[in-house]
Design brief:
This protein is of the alpha+beta class. It has two domains: 3-99, lambda repressor-like DNA-binding domains (434 Repressor (Amino-terminal Domain), Orthogonal Bundle), CATH 1.10.260; 119-298, 2-Layer Sandwich (Beta-Lactamase), CATH 3.30.450.180. Helix content is 48%, strand content 11%. It is built from 14 helices and five strands. Helix 1 (3-22) packs antiparallel against helix 5, helix 2 packs across helix 3 (55-62) and helix 2 crosses helix 4 (71-80). The radius of gyration is 22 Å and the shape is elongated. InterPro entries: Cro/C1-type_HTH (IPR001387), Lambda_DNA-bd_dom_sf (IPR010982), MLTR_LBD (IPR041413). Residues 41-88 form the HTH cro/C1-type domain. This is Helix-turn-helix domain-containing protein.
C-alpha cells in the first residue's frame, strides 16, 4: 500500500472509530442491546445493525476500505453515527478520495494555491469600510483584508510565526506557535479547536495539497496541543457565529461573523465581522478604525 493510500485509510479508520466512540447505546436507542460493555460508545456490530449492513462489511469500512462504497451506504453509516453536516461531508470526501485511487480528484485538489485575492475581490473588501473583513484559504492563510480587518488581525500580521514579510500570515501557526495568541483570543482554546477542525475538513477535501500537508506536519512537530487535537478527528463548517478578540490598542471586541465561500475562487472564504449597535464593542470598533487610519502608513502590505 502506498504511503498516500495508507494515510487516507488511516484517516478513514480513525474518523469512523472516534465517531463510534462518541455515540452511546442510549443515544442510538439500544438500551437493551448487549450485556457487559468493554468499549466506549457503540460496538461495530451495533453500528452495522443501525446502518443496515453486515458486521463484516462495516468492520471493513472502519479499517479504511471506502473505495467503491455507495452513497446510500455512506448515508446509512452517517445516520447510524449521528454525523452532523460537516462530519458527513468529511466522510464523503474520504470516500471520494479513496475512489480516486491516489489520483487528484476534480474538486480542485491540484489547483494552484492562491497567494493573494483577485483585484475585484480586494475592491469588494475595500468597499466595506465600517466592518472588519478578510479572505482566507483552506490552509488558514490570510490572503486579503480591508483596513479594519488588517487592524483587527494586526497581532497575526506582526507575529514572528510569519515566515516572511511577503508570506501570508497563517491563523493556525499563530494560534499554536505564538504565545501572543493567548492574549489576542480570550477563548484561545476554542480558537485553536476551530482551527484544527477547519484544517481537518480541508485535508479531507484536498488530500494532495502539499502546502497543507507541510503545515500540518510542522504544527504536529512543534505543538503537542495541536497533535492532541488533530488526533480527535473533529471537523467543522465555519459559517456563522461569535468570536472575541483582545486588541492591544482598543481592548476586547465581541463580534458576530458570517463566512461565505467565494464561488469564483474555489477554496477561498470571505469572513465579515459586525458589532451589535450601541454596545461597548461598537464603540471600540470605531476606535479601532481611528487607530487603523493612524497606523496605516506603518503597516506591511499584504502578499503580492
Amino acid at each position: 500500500m502506498s504511503g498516500a493510500r495508507s494515510h487516507r485509510s488511516e484517516a478513514a479508520r480513525d474518523f469512523l472509530a472516534t465517531r463510534r466512540a462518541k455515540i452511546t447505546p442510549e443515544d442510538a436507542g439500544l438500551t437493551a442491546y448487549g450485556g457487559n460493555r468493554r468499549v466506549t460508545g457503540l460496538r461495530r456490530e451495533e453500528v452495522a445493525m443501525l446502518a443496515g449492513v453486515s458486521a463484516d462489511y462495516y468492520t471493513r469500512l472502519e479499517k479504511g476500505h471506502l473505495a467503491g462504497v455507495s452513497d446510500s451506504v455512506l448515508d446509512a453509516v452517517a445516520g447510524a453515527l449521528h454525523l452532523d453536516e460537516a462530519e458527513r461531508a468529511y466522510l464523503f470526501d474520504l470516500a471520494r478520495n479513496a475512489n480516486a485511487g491516489g489520483r487528484p480528484g476534480r474538486r480542485g485538489t491540484t489547483r494552484r494555491r492562491a497567494t493573494q485575492v483577485r483585484p475585484t475581490v480586494q475592491t469588494v473588501l475595500d468597499s466595506m469600510r465600517d466592518v472588519p473583513a478578510f479572505v482566507r484559504n483552506g490552509r488558514l492563510d490570510i490572503l486579503g483584508t480591508n483596513t479594519l480587518g488588517r487592524a483587527l488581525y494586526s497581532p497575526v500580521f506582526d507575529s514572528p510565526t510569519r515566515t516572511s514579510d511577503v508570506s501570508p500570515p497563517n491563523l493556525a501557526r499563530f494560534g499554536f506557535l505564538d504565545p501572543a495568541a493567548r492574549d489576542c483570543f480570550p477563548d484561545h482554546d476554542g480558537a485553536c479547536h476551530t482551527n484544527v477542525q477547519l484544517l481537518r475538513a480541508e485535508a479531507g477535501r484536498t488530500p494532495h495539497d502539499k502546502d497543507l500537508t507541510d503545515l500540518i506536519g510542522e504544527l504536529s512537530t512543534r505543538s503537542e496541543d495541536f497533535r492532541t487535537r488533530w488526533a480527535a478527528h473533529d471537523v467543522r463548517l465555519h459559517r456563522t457565529g461569535r468570536k472575541s478578540f483582545h486588541h492591544p490598542a482598543v481592548g476586547r471586541l465581541d463580534l458576530s461573523f458570517e463566512a461565505m465561500a467565494l464561488e469564483a475562487d474555489p477554496g477561498l472564504t470571505l469572513t465579515v465581522y459586525t458589532a451589535e449597535p450601541d454596545t461597548a464593542t461598537a464603540e471600540r470598533l470605531s476606535l479601532l478604525a481611528s487607530w487603523a487610519a493612524t497606523h496605516a502608513a506603518d503597516e506591511a502590505p499584504l502578499p503580492g
